[in-house]
Amino acid sequence: MKERHCKRRVQSLIIVVFCIVFIQKVPSWLVSHGTQFLISNGILVHPIRRLAKLGLFPTLLSLTENIGAFFTAVLFLIFFRELQSRVKGKGNTGNNIFMKKSDANRLCLLGLMGAGAAQAITFCLKLLPADMQAAYGASMSIALNGRLACFLFIITHIIIVPVREEMVFRGLSYEILRSSWGWGGCTLLLTILFAGNHRNAIQIAYALFMGALLSVIREFYGSVLYTIAFHIMFNLSGSHIFLSEYMEFFMYTGTIVFIISVILVALDMKEMRTRELTERSIRIDRPGK
Description:
Helix 1 packs antiparallel against helix 6 (146-196), helix 3 (57-88) crosses helix 6 and helix 4 (104-125) runs parallel beside helix 8 (224-239). The chain is built from nine helices and no strands. It is mainly alpha-helical and 289 residues long.
């Protein structure tokens, strides 16, 4: 029995790693080789050159890759849910992570929490040595030439990327790992995998914190919509597209908002837990009703 459980754990981890690598790499490979094929065969050369001169070509490539990864993640999730329904019985797929009714107030609260978390991390980065701040700033610098580039950046990195990452990590991967690893093991593994998906040491450090926090939100609230709301607002606030002139003000204000929202979310989770225990106790006391 123990050997079977260990084998199941290993299998689920291998499946998750395969899904993450496939979703990340295959659309990127297809877009890269597709672009090379078009250029080498003289197809759409003039539009590509014009986009390159405007500085929009890399952004469009990133947008195409992320759209491909998004639809690949959707297909993987649909396949997994169908497989799960066949194993457990028709119509039984566990919690419906997308269609589960979401509370608008909680979505707003978690969105504010995500926006505040980005500013709190910015505040912490200010405490680092100047050379580390400069190196991180250079790696994160965004060349946005005009409104169109800004619009494409928002669509790609503030909407599509957070939704795709949440579907992959707190959606598909979470469901695969949760049953075999338990909540603690699932959270640890996904936090490490999510952090490893980022580019540099500072990003990895705050992705560890963010990954653990998102797993807690996913576990207690049950719907990936809440983690998507957090992640979108985190990326929007952290991009500083609209905050450059008032960065210091928003940094301190956002840190305060984050602390307050953490307290409110913790109280909400405690209330939810108390309500669940009460309802469970009532069902046990009245088994026939």
